[in-house]
C-alpha cells in the first residue's frame, strides 16, 4: 500500500486490499515481528464521537506494534468546545504524534484534516461517510471464512443509512462478488449507491425476504435496523422482527454459511446463533486488531523492509516530534 | 492462587489470601522483578461506573508489571449506550486484551462476564456485590500494621450498605479475628451478613458507641455514612457526628491503634488524625498497587515460576491477540 | 533547575529559565537521549478542567522521555464528585505515580497540593493563577525565532483576564524586553500587574491601536478576546474586530515579525496568516513537547548527570511505588 492517508475504502485497489490483508495475516500469526520498529511511535486518537470497539481496536493495534497512544479525550473534556476549528486541532496534534486516527461527525472531516497535516491520517468514521478500516476487517473476515473469489454474499438490514454496507459493497466490486441486498422497502440501498455499484460492474439483486436467497449464500452480513428511523414503535417492531435471524432461521442455510455483523447488535441476531459454527461476528471484531496493525504498519512504516505493508507516509520529524 | 478469575473475596481461601499478600510484599520490595514477562500484556479497563483510585491503581499495577492498558472509556463515550449487552461487550474486548478489569453497577456483572470470555476477569466492584481487590489490600494493610493473627478490629460507620465492610468481615473469618461492629441502629450490619459470619465461626459483637471498645482495638476501620441514607438533614448531621473521630478521640485508644478507611472520606476522620502514627489510610490506598500487581501476576502469569502468585488463567491467544 | 515543584513562572530565575530552554533544545535535537532513564516512570495526569493541548503535550512529553502516564480521567468519572478534598486526592495519587501534573479551577490549587505530597507537582493551570509551562514554551519560541535579548514584543487582546499574558510579561522582565500592551480600554492590563512589572524594572507602554507600534515589533503575541466578557454582542463584535489581524495587517509589520498565540484561536488571526513566514503559533504549540520534556527531566531526574535540567525532586519510593 502506497498511500499517505487512509481516507476511504474507495481509494484502495484490489492490490492494495490484498497487500493489507496479507500483511494482517502475517501479523496475526506473528504479532511480535515489528515490535522494535515502533517503540518510539505515538498515535493520536482523536474521537469526536463515541466509540468503543474502533477506538480500543486502534489502541490495541498500535500497542501490539510496540508503539503507544496520546488520546485527545472526549470532546467535552477538550478545548474543541472553545470553538477551535478541526484544521487547527489537527495541526496542533501533529506536533505530538506520528499519526492521527480521526472519528468525526462530519462527512469529509478526515479528508479535510489530511490536507492540513504532514502525518498520516486514518479515517475512523466520518458521519455518513466512510469507515475504511471497518471495510478492511470485513474483507479479512470474509477471505478467512469463505474466500473473496466466487463469493455470494447477502447484506441485510438497514441498507439506506449504513455506511458500513456502502463501503463493503463498493470494495467487493473489486472481487466480482454476487451481492444480494435484503431489506424492508423503506430501507433499500439508495439509488446513487446502486448506480455506482452498477458502474463498477457489480452483480447485485434486491430482496425483501431473506428466504429468497438464504440457501445460496456463502456469507450473510447483518446490520442493525435503528429504532429512530421509524416514527411508529409498532411499525418498527414489526419490520425489525422480519429481519432478525436465529438458529432456526439458519437451519435453512448452507452448513458453511458465515454470519457477520459490524456490532453492536441489539436483536438482529438471537443469542442462540452465537454457539453455532455460522457465527463469525466476534472473530470479525477481533480481526480489527491485525488488520489495523497492518494498516498502521503501511502508513507509519518507512517502507524499507519491502514488505507488503510498507508505506510511504510523510513522517519527517519536526522539532517537537 | 489457582483461579481463572477473581470474582469475589469469598472464593479465596486463607491459603490463597496469604499467597497473594506474600507475593505483594515481594513485589513491593522489588517491583522490577517481573517487568520482562508482561511487556506484551494488555489489560482492558472496563469501568461502567466512575472510579478514581481503583482504576488508577489497576492502571499503575499493570504498568509497574511492565504491561499496559486499553481503556474502554466512560459509558457516555462508548457504544454501550447503543444497547449492547454486557456479554457482547466483553466478548469483543477479550479480542483486544489479555485480561479484563470490570466495574459495573449490577451485582453479578463480573461473574456473568467471566462466563463469556476466555481471558481472566477481575471484579473491581459490582454494585452492592463484591470488590475483592479492595478486601485484599485491606488485609495486606492490616497484616503489615497489626498482624492478622489474634486481631481485634472495630469496623465503624455504615455497616448496612457498605460492600467493603461485608467482604472484609467475611475474609477475616479465615483468621479468627475478634470483630466489633460500631454503627447507629439504622445502619447495623444486615441480619443475613451476621448469620453468614456466625456460620463461618466469627466472634462478633455490635455497639452503638465507639468508646465501649476503643481501648481494646488493634485496628479501627472507619467508613463513610452517606447523607443520602437519611431523609432528614438534621438527623444525618447528628448521627454522622457521633461516628466521626479526631485526634482527641484517639487519645482514648491504644498507642498502636491503626486507623483505616477505604476512602474517599468526607468528615468521618478529622484532618488532625492524618499526622498521627495511627493514620494508615493513605498507605492503605497505596498498598492497592503491590496487591493488584500480585493479583494480576497470579491471573495473567503462566505459573511457570512456581511463585506463590503464579496462576493458571486461560490466556491462549486467539488470532487477533 | 533545582526545584521540587513547578508552581509558578515567578519562582524561576533567568538562570532557571535558560537551563530549561537549553535542555529543551537538546532534547528537541535528540529526543532519545534519556529514554532509558524513565522507563519505570509514571506521571499522573490530574486534570480537573478540560484541556486538549496541555494534557496531550504532557502525555507526549513523558512518553518521549520513555515513561508513561496514569490518568485520573474527567472529574465526572472520578470519585472527586463524592466530596473528596484535593489534599486527599493527591495524597492517594502520589502512591501511584512519580510526579503529578495538575490542572484545577481554583487559584493556588497546585501550591496546596504540593504541600501534601512528596512527589513533584507541576502546575498545568490553576484558575486565574499560573500556567508556568505555557510561559516556558512561549519563551522557548521567542528565543528560537527572535532571541530573548534586546526584544521588542507586542502583547495584544484580553490583557485583563489572560493568565498567559501576565506570566509571560513577568518572565520577560528577566530579559529586559520592551513590552507594548495593546488592548481595548476595558481589557487593559490590571493595575496590580502593571505595578509588579514596574517594580521588576520592566519597560512597558500601553496602546489601544496596534498600528502605533506594529512596525517596531520583533514579536506580536495575540490572545483571544472572549465573547462572554461583553454583555452586548454588538459591542463584542465591534471591539474584537479591531484586534484581529490578517495577512494585510502584517504588510505593515517588519518582514521578520513573529506572530504567536497560545491557542485555541477563534477569529483573532485570520487563516491567511497561517501560510506566511510570520506564523509561529503551531510551532509554538509543538514546542510544548521538548519544553515539558526538559521540565519533567528537571523535576523527576536524579540530577546525577549534571545536566542543565537535572533536578532534585523528592522521589524516594514508598512501598507501593
UniProtKB/TrEMBL annotation, chains A, B, C:
Biochemical pathway: Pyrimidine metabolism; UMP biosynthesis via de novo pathway; (S)-dihydroorotate from bicarbonate: step 2/3
PROSITE patterns assigned: CARBAMOYLTRANSFERASE
Alphabetical list of SUPFAM superfamilies matching this protein: Aspartate/ornithine carbamoyltransferase
Binding site for carbamoyl phosphate: 53-54, 103, 131, 134, 263-264
GO BP, sorted A to Z: 'de novo' UMP biosynthetic process
Keyword flag Hydrolase: no
One GO MF term: aspartate carbamoyltransferase activity
InterPro entries: Asp/Orn_carbamoyltranf_P-bd (IPR006132), Asp/Orn_carbamoylTrfase (IPR006130), Asp/Orn_carbamoylTrfase_sf (IPR036901), Asp_carbamoyltransf (IPR002082), Asp_carbamoyltransf_Asp/Orn-bd (IPR006131)
Residues annotated for L-aspartate binding in this entry: 82, 163, 224
Gene3D superfamilies reported in the protein's UniProt record: Aspartate/ornithine carbamoyltransferase (3.40.50.1370)
Keyword annotations from UniProtKB, A to Z: Pyrimidine biosynthesis, Transferase
Domain Aspartate/ornithine carbamoyltransferase Asp/Orn-binding: 150-297
Keyword Transferase: yes
Domain of life: Archaea
Catalytic activity: carbamoyl phosphate + L-aspartate = N-carbamoyl-L-aspartate + phosphate + H(+)
Complexes and interactors: Heterooligomer of catalytic and regulatory chains.
Function: Catalyzes the condensation of carbamoyl phosphate and aspartate to form carbamoyl aspartate and inorganic phosphate, the committed step in the de novo pyrimidine nucleotide biosynthesis pathway.
Family under the similarity heading: Belongs to the aspartate/ornithine carbamoyltransferase superfamily. ATCase family.
Protein name per the record: Aspartate carbamoyltransferase
Species per Swiss-Prot/TrEMBL record: Halobaculum halobium
Amino acid at each position: 500500500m502506497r498511500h499517505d492517508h487512509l481516507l476511504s475504502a474507495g481509494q484502495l485497489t484490489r492490490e492494495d486490499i490484498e497487500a493489507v490483508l496479507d500483511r494482517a495475516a502475517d501479523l496475526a500469526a506473528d504479532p511480535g515481528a515489528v515490535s522494535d520498529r515502533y517503540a518510539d511511535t505515538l498515535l493520536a486518537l482523536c474521537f469526536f464521537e463515541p466509540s468503543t470497539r474502533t477506538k480500543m481496536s486502534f489502541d490495541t493495534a498500535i500497542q501490539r506494534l510496540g508503539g503507544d497512544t496520546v488520546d485527545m479525550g472526549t470532546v467535552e473534556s477538550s478545548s474543541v468546545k472553545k470553538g477551535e476549528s478541526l484544521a487547527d486541532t489537527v495541526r496542533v496534534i501533529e506536533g505530538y504524534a506520528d499519526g492521527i486516527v480521526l472519528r468525526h461527525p462530519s462527512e469529509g472531516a478526515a479528508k479535510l484534516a489530511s490536507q492540513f497535516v504532514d502525518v498520516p491520517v486514518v479515517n475512523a468514521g466520518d458521519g455518513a461517510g466512510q469507515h475504511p478500516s471497518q471495510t478492511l476487517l470485513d474483507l479479512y473476515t470474509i477471505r478467512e471464512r469463505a474466500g473473496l473469489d466466487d463469493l455470494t454474499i447477502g447484506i441485510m438490514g438497514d441498507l439506506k443509512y449504513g455506511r458500513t454496507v456502502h463501503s463493503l459493497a463498493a470494495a467487493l466490486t473489486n472481487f466480482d462478488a454476487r451481492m444480494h441486498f435484503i431489506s424492508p422497502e423503506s430501507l433499500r440501498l439508495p439509488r446513487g449507491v446502486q448506480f455506482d455499484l452498477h458502474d463498477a460492474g457489480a452483480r447485485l439483486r434486491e430482496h425483501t425476504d431473506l428466504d429468497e436467497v438464504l440457501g445460496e449464500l456463502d456469507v450473510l452480513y447483518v446490520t442493525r435496523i435503528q429504532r429512530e428511523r421509524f416514527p411508529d414503535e409498532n411499525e418498527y417492531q414489526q419490520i425489525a422482527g422480519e429481519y432478525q435471524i436465529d438458529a432456526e432461521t439458519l437451519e435453512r442455510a448452507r452448513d458453511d454459511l458465515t454470519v457477520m455483523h459490524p456490532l453492536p447488535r441489539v436483536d438482529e441476531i438471537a443469542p442462540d446463533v452465537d454457539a453455532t459454527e455460522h457465527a463469525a461476528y466476534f472473530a470479525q471484531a477481533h480481526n480489527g486488531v491485525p488488520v489495523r496493525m497492518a494498516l498502521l504498519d503501511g502508513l507509519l512504516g518507512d517502507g524499507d523492509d519491502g514488505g507488503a505493508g510498507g508505506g510511504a507516509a510523510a513522517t519527517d520529524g519536526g522539532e517537537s516530534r
